[in-house]
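PT: before anyone asks, these are the final sequences, not the draft ones from last week. 662 residues across everything. Please model them as a single complex and drop the result in this thread when it's through.
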Amino acid sequence: MSSHQSIDQSREVKPSSGAVKIVEKQAQRRIFKIIVIGDSNVGKTCLTYRFCSGKFPDKTEATIGVDFREKTVDLDGEQIKLQLWDTAGQERFRKSMVQHYYRNVHAVVFVFDVTKMSSFENMPQWIEECDRHNLDKNLPRIFVGNKCDMKDKIAVNTNLAQKFADSHNMPLFETSAKDDEKANHVDAIFMTMAHKLKNAKPMMSPHMSRYTPGETREVINVRASPHHRGLQSINPNEEKTDNCAC
Amino acid sequence: MSGEESDFNQSDQNDWLEIDPQTEIISVISPDIVEPDVIPPKTEKDDKNKNKNLNLSPGSAAKRKKILRALKDGVDVSELQSFAINRGGLLTNELRKQVWPKQLGVKLSEITPKPDEDMLHGHRDYDQVVMDVNRSLKRFPPGMDDDERFALQDILVDVIMRVLVNNSELHYYQGFHDICVTFLLVVDEDVAFAIVEKLSQKHLRDFMDADMDRTKHMLNYLYPIIDKASPQLCEYMERAETGTIFCLSWLITWYGHVLNDIKHIVRLYDFFIACHQLMPIYLAAAIVLYRQDEILETECEMCFIHSLLSRIPDNLPFEQLISKAGDLYLQFPPEDLASEAEFRSQENDNRAKRQRANGVAKLHQWSWRNNIRWVSTHMPNYGRRHYLLTTAVAAVVTAALCYSTTDWGWIEWNWF
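LR: through. Structure below.
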């Protein structure tokens, strides 16, 4: 079911003179912004694509600048929207282009490639990068080792990665965006993050949809764009919606 | 911004356009100049068959003939540039093979030979180039045989590395491979290298610095153009804090990274080779303006507008947009926008600095800010007023007490 359909089901349209007036009951929808960072070619795009669309991309490409993907998940009856910002790994982009996207993030996913030691060794630089952008140290951060399907090429020992993760107070996940059997695992990683965000009292308040529960509002000149978040509402029958912009 | 090459604000348009902008461009970018100019060519039989094979309309066939004639007559670059700009561009890859080198002054007999493999593989950017080329499958024709594609990917790495090795001041950026692959799909290895090398020294030079400061500066021309053409749209996008990253790949890959149809890509390359290095930004503005209604219907928030714009629909009317970009360029030339772009650059820098400074202070101020927020959200209106009034009175009383208990005698009042 697309999110667009769910919007239609939950609003009552009352035609009126001149403009379409829509009276709707909206529930609260929290939106969390997550930035995904790490060296070039570690699989940031594939991980976010796998989570948002449920599959491994056929043809991957270097990310130039920043890509945006999102997915709505249902956590204990609450609809949570996760916005994933997939960033370019090449140093020159992170130095001068990506800062804009560090603003107001609620969580950070650090990704390294378990088959490439240098991508692990560069992690302190990425953490420093976050500190430089003044991301709060209490924001949920997770540490993901990707490509663990390539068992014979593993270069970063789990213990080593675990030690690093512990020293930075982050949980470590080793996974593979490519391996279909690990698809649930990738989901679980992001869902863990979503749970953490949902239950935490974040320093920065999460972005809310503009209406509070049970509030009745009039919206004039409503557009039908599915992106029109102001109109998104919670439908109890709605399953997970996937609005992957991949 | 520094360096002569980067100083596009002051550069003479003719350096890039190589034709008189006031007379020629206005005529050549007008969309309906060439097509209706259909003079059924007095073609020979084989020429007719060729046009048929190339699937050219009568108008394009006539243009093709003109281009061939121009090539035969000797090199009049300005004429070739105008063919590249106006409707349909250079029409076919067969013509591109001949015209592109001439547009850029590439002499086929003077192409620098390929350095040995060790030189190419020892370069600082080699690993990054290989990673990006390995992931560039999308850029090759869908039906291409795997072996053929692998071979072409190896050549692509060599082309890129040759440019970098021959020009030690140039730095590889992700996206440069998208430019190189486009040329490699049209011309052979040596010519692709020579073309890309020329472009790296001219149009692409600013992207190939060690950092992206000058690239960022080029992106800052986008909003001034949009603002002049549609202040309402500009205000909306700025209110959403859309930024310019959505069109970063448009600029630095000349749209090669974002368009799916190679026909559209090479058509744009015709146009960009013939124009000022900021023309991809003018085209970006034309695309944004073309999608104005969609943007204004999207919620005024960065993520949604970024998401909408960063994907370019395949069915955009590219000829019309090229023409619009040319019009925007003439109406609002770079030199008229330079000060505003500079102002925006400074604003962005200041914002980044403020952000950093705020962040440092954030941890200290957080609880204070939260208290204020708590007060403002939890107190009813009259309570809020009461709170503020109490605070103000307390401040005055404290000041009065301080004044009365302090010995002010040490101040010499004539200081003031």
